[in-house]
Design a protein that fits this description.
The chain is α/β, with parallel strands linked by helices. The chain is built from 15 helices and 16 strands. Helix 6 packs across helix 7, helix 11 packs antiparallel against helix 12 and helix 11 packs parallel to helix 13. It binds one RNA strand of 74 nucleotides through helix 1, helix 5, helix 7, helix 10 and helix 12.
Amino acid sequence: MSLQFHNQLTKKVDPFTPQVAGKVSLYTCGPTVYNYPHVGNWSGYVYWDTLVRILQANNLEVTRVMNITDVGHLTGENEGDADQGEDKLQKGARREGKTAWEVAAFYTDDFMKGIDRLNLIKPTHVTKATNYIEEQLQLIRTLKEKGFTYEIDDGIYFDTAKFPTYANFADLDLEAQRAGARVEYNPEKRNHSDFALWKFSPAGEARDMEWETPSDLIEAGEERLGFPGWHLECSAMAMTLLGETLDLHTGGIDHIPVHHTNEIAQSEAATGVIFANYWMHNNHLKVNGTKISKSLDNGYTLDDLEEKGYSPLDFRMFVLQSHYRSEGNFTFENLDGAKNRLRNWRNIAALRHQTHDRLRDDDEKSTDDESVSLYASSQALVEALSNDLDTPAAYAIIDDAFSRIESINIEDIHQHALTTLLETIDSVLGLQLLETTKDISDDVKRFIIERERARENKDWHAADHLRDQIEKSGITVRDTAHGSIWEYTA
RNA sequence: GGCGCGUUGGCGGAGCAGUUACGCAGCGGUCUGCAAAACCGCGUAGAUGGGUGCAACUCCCAUACGUGCCUCCA
């Protein structure tokens, strides 16, 4: 089996080869911690978690860094957006009557809880931008020494004209952009696409987060407080922890033209080597067919979903139903479909509890057709995901395997093959099929056996009474030609 | 205003130039103590108009609608 991924550098699906055999360095752009993440934010993290899982399933040791943007960045100086001209964290702090530090700490904590709720594997390093200010300043220093920077009134900027391949990553038409721009840009900037590496604190504005600008970075005689530009932190933290060249860098599709383009420019200008060999981007999730935006109030959070009766795993099931590069659409009707599909999968997973004395565990039977095909499904699942994270194909493989299990006699299911398949699904898709399908209590099992006995005696009254008892435990029994099977009641 | 992208059955969602994707929901039948499940079957999918091809949902062009970026954004 071989891994291949769509790479923004080449704009096509390429075979994936890490720099060092058996190891992968991975950087994922993390959240700005000024608010609760919404379903669109989380969908990206679900995809990248699945990426980590499939890398690991291919026996690769993954070292992953995810940043926490816990420092405010001034957004553009222009009109058109209510958030314009104000630092999100400072704004959040004012809204909540706290300091920016407290706001960042609160939402960082919430984000980390969300990672657990969605069963996302914790990155090797979760790094806060404010813990890497020195590294960011050092990167500016390197860029200044190499002549890529200039200072204007409000900050230190990167001169994109000095990085000739700037437009390549996103296929930018810089001339057209400038000509078609609807908003004015800072006229002091040398080029429209130049971006701030370091911003000076505006005079008279009280900020919770600011640092002294080292004197060697600014013109002689100045003394200015400032804070890092947004793009800088990712480059500084990625290279500090993973080295100058990463294997893989992931993020949202919106990052291609600005954030990632700028990361590449500043990193490669500083080091002279390629910053990341593969770049993967998740498409955005819409809600009810439109963009998620504050004004529409459609950015549902995990709490919103739980209040409506959907678990984070229902949502995870929903996300992976569509390919990471296609645009998803979130509606509660769609979430219902995913929830039902997951419920059905769990009922298959529960079969392993009710078959152990009847299952074909003996070696001589482990090579029969059904068990072999289940082992093949485990293999096919990993191969589908290795092919550019093809989660829809993976789901189809699982459905196919499960419908075969449903259609054969329970005695003919090979327990080890089924358990192996479930373990594989859990390890690569993180759906916790095993964990969420615990065995039932001995009491309920006894009721089921008594009920089977009553049925043999055609004592339908007793049988129906026992079924009521069983249903009180959230279990439904159904009778097949080969005995009773229990399921979790929907 | 400039530059992109998308449009598949009730709802999601894939692949593919010619044989069932898959799921959720629905309908009919078989089976069955009841119930449920399972199994079998059903519903004239491919925005619209052209073009290329022996053949197009699949390639090309146009139109409509939707949507995104150009400003912070997963």
